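Trying the structure run again after the queue cleared.
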Amino acid sequence: MIFRKKQQAIAYDKEKLKPVIKCSICTGEQVAGFKELPSGTFKEVMLIRNDNDLRRFKEMYGITDELGKIY
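Done. Tokens:
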């Protein structure tokens, strides 16, 4: 049996950054990242191709809630 070491979540400023998924209306492409609350700008972190990518993004940052979507 193979044991994997649980990785520690990457910290982010929860008061200034909100995790969201940015969706393209034309192509349907989805990108996970963070929206800066004061300025409203979006910072990309990773491309979401399937549910495994979304799960990995949430595990990386210790996110337990559902992510909002912006278009």
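The radius of gyration is 13 Å. Worth checking whether this holds up in the mutant runs.
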